[in-house]
């Protein structure tokens, strides 16, 4: 072990990573809550109006998640509407699938290396949110401030892990994540703890940008995050109607089925992403894999929505 590796202050490193993660999670929550306030009843009307068939539901879920920057917010909103009999469970399935596609937009944004410009967003957002008395402008300012805080949190984590380049034991541990099962378990557990699949994928992108994990390890972590994010949905259906329970179970089963296929074909997924991404940075390749995996999963299973519905009707009587 080199002298520089021996000099790593792991307490300071850990505190910086935790601080960066805390900023990221707070920013995601701030943006999600503020965007939900801005959209409010209009988003519920939008969801109810365009769910008449699975494919319009998929498009609706994609657009809603992109606008609200949170698949959990959209899915929980949909479950509430199902519980209130505003839409049926089968109408919610397409929206839930679309939410999986919409959440990949955040990973694409995270993969842009614009962290050094985060102070501009922070200052601009702070000014918008505090100057004047226009409530809508204040909320837009909060969203801009949250975006800046996301990139600043990622930058903090990125700088914190730089010393690990000179610490061989960390590389040895990271190599274990190349095992699809172990990588997925880590991704799922991390998402379960921090309650944000976007943060888990963001961490994978940060580690990849520092060349600390391989593309396969990053994809495995991302696949695990797809399972971990279902915890929000399952908690949201406790005590709800049977229709809402069916919708929540659909989210879990759809994600599990997609991830199993992803793990079985992970080598093919890695090769396809390498081919499509060319010389793109490793972090961008993980973001591209996130998009490719979720889009292919929706394309594959969208045709089987009626079968899912019949099976869940039989399961939840």
UniProtKB/TrEMBL annotation:
Q: Name one GO cellular component term.
A: plasma membrane
Give UniProt keywords alphabetically. Cell membrane, Membrane, Transmembrane, Transmembrane helix
Which GO MF terms are attached to this record? sodium:phosphate symporter activity
Per the record, the domain of life is Bacteria
Give yes or no: UniProt keyword Metal-binding.
Answer: no
- PANTHER family the UniProt entry points to: SODIUM-DEPENDENT PHOSPHATE TRANSPORT PROTEIN 2B, SOLUTE CARRIER FAMILY 34 SODIUM PHOSPHATE , MEMBER 2-RELATED
InterPro entries documented for this protein: Na/Pi_transpt (IPR003841)
Where does this protein chiefly localize? membrane
Transmembrane residue ranges: 13-35, 47-68, 74-97, 109-128, 184-207, 249-271, 291-308
Q: Which GO terms describe its biological process?
A: sodium-dependent phosphate transport
Keyword Amino-acid biosynthesis present in the record's keywords: the answer is: no
Q: Where in the cell is it found?
A: Cell membrane
Q: What is the protein name for this chain?
A: Na+/Picotransporter
Topology within the bilayer: Multi-pass membrane protein
């Amino acid at each position: 072990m080199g002298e520089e590796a021996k000099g790593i202050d792991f307490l300071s490193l850990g505190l910086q990573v935790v601080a960066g993660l805390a900023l990221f999670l707070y920013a995601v929550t701030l943006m999600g809550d503020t965007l939900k306030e801005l959209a409010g009843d209009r988003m519920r009307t939008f969801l109810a109006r365009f769910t008449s068939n699975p494919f319009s539901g998929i498009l609706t879920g994609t657009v809603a998640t992109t606008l609200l920057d949170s698949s959990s917010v959209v899915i929980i909103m949909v479950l509430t509407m199902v519980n209130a009999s505003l839409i049926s469970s089968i109408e919610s399935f397409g929206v839930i699938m679309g939410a999986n596609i919409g959440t990949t937009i955040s990973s694409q944004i995270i993969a842009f290396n614009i962290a050094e410009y985060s102070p501009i967003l922070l200052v601009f957002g702070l000014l918008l949110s505090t100057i004047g008395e226009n409530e809508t402008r204040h909320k837009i300012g909060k969203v801009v401030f949250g975006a800046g805080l996301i990139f600043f949190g990622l930058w903090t984590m990125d700088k914190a892990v730089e010393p690990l380049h000179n610490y061989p034991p960390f590389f040895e541990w990271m190599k274990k994540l190349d095992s699809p099962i172990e990588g997925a378990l880590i991704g799922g557990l991390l998402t379960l703890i921090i309650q944000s699949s976007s943060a888990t994928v963001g961490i994978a992108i940060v580690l990849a940008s520092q060349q600390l994990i391989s593309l396969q390890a990053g994809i495995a972590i991302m696949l695990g995050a797809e399972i971990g994010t279902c915890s929000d949905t399952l908690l949201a259906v406790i005590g709800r109607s049977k229709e809402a329970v069916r919708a929540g179970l659909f989210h879990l089963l759809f994600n599990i089925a997609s991830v199993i296929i992803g793990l079985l074909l992970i080598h093919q997924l890695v090769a396809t992403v390498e081919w499509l991404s060319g010389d793109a940075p490793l972090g961008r390749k993980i973001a591209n894999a996130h998009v490719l995996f979720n889009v292919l999963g929706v394309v594959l299973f969208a045709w089987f929505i009626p079968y899912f519905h019949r099976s869940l009707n039989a399961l939840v009587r």
